[in-house]
Amino acid sequence: MGSSPPRVVVLAGGVGGSRFALGVRAALQRRSAPEPTLVVNTGDDVWLSGVRLQPDIDSILYALAGVNDTARGWGREGDTERVNHELQAWGAGWPWFTLGDLDLGTHLARTGWLRDGLTPTRVAAKLSERWPLGARILPMTDAEVDTWVVLADGSRMHFQEWWTRHRAHLEPVAFENPGIDAASPATGVLEAIAESDVVLLAPSNPVVSIGPILDVPGIRDALRAAPGAVVGVSPIIGGKVVRGMADVCLSAIGVDTSAAAVAGLYGARAGSGILDSWLIAEEDADLASAVDAVGVRAVVAPLWMTDAAASAALANAALAAAGF
Ligand code: GDP
Ligand code: CA
Fold first, then answer.
1. What ligand has the least distance to the C-alpha of 45?
2. Which ligand minimizes its atom distance to the CA of 202?
3. Nearest atom within ligand 1 for CA of residue 233
């Protein structure tokens, strides 16, 4: 291990995923390593006003291209909302869900190509041609397996409605991805994992970002059989989610909001899980023995991705944990 630059696969959601992806790209460029393959959650995807949205793929695409709105945390920098106002005037779409004009350009391009018969994998490749991204973006699957949230009264709603309209305030009892049992990994996903030297799990939402990726039949087994180390980064620091509402998702599936509990959720490759090593924050150093008890090697590192340098340092720590 460690002699030649590593081939890296990253499993990722949107915001945490894109910050980490920027760090991985920087860390690999410094090592003259090949571009990483990013396997991205598509559970957030939704049809709205006739177009297909792929929020996590777009977050990563825009961040790698440097055209994302860093202040707002989503969408395109300098976007406007003229079309959105028209849609609302027509009573079309969701009044609580803003689609920026530039962002709608992406959705229209994507939907047009899907209607032409291209797979989501090919569409992601075409969207990636516009900018030098320094990474390959793959959807986890070409199948439509949107996440649905089951509420206590037995009713269901699309994940985007629960997350964006209700800000995760309606108590969930389960998350489902209808059709996922019959889905296949997107073309290239299993190959990338089998040919990788390192697989990294971004500090993304374990339940609704990483969870759906692992639930695509074949991906979990591919990680268990990966030739190099599988290293995860905790999205939980000091018992708290850093951004977003992942704690509500974890509670719903009976997992504590703690770095050690999430390590337990993923499990050890030495057992029936997927992790070899797990990066926890300095604030959580006292949890190292609990992580080790799961059979996963705990590595204490600074986990705050406050800027590009911090994200790159975190990616370096993850690569070092994998022997690179
Ligand atoms: P989403 O798809 O936009 O919800 O984003 P992800 O699923 O990729 O990431 C969301 C998770 O990233 C949140 O649950 C946070 O706990 C985590 N996160 C965000 N910023 C940071 C950070 O700076 N450091 C770490 N370790 N985790 C972070
Ligand atoms: Ca997401």
1. 2
2. 1
3. 26
Residue 2's pLDDT band (cuts 50, 70, 90): low
pTM across the whole model: 0.98
Angstrom CA distances, 198 to 182, 209, 227, 259, 261, stand at 27, 20, 8, 21, 23
pLDDT digits over 242-255, tens only? 888 999 999 999 99
Residue 30, domain member (yes or no):
yes
Ligand 1 atom closest to Cα of residue 18: 8
Those residues whose C-beta lies under 8 Å from the C-beta of residue 89, and which sit 6 or more positions away, are none
Is the residue at 25 inside a domain?
yes
Q: What is the pLDDT of residues 116-147, one digit of tens each?
A: 999 999 999 999 999 999 999 999 999 999 99
Best residue among 15, 60, 74 to mutate for probing ligand 1's pocket (most ligand atoms within 8 Å of CB) is 15
Distance 16 CA to ligand 2 centre (A): 9
Determine the Cα–Cα distance for residues 228 and 79; give it in Å rounded to an integer: 41
Could you tell me the residue range of the domain that residue 235 belongs to? Answer: 8-45+134-145+179-321
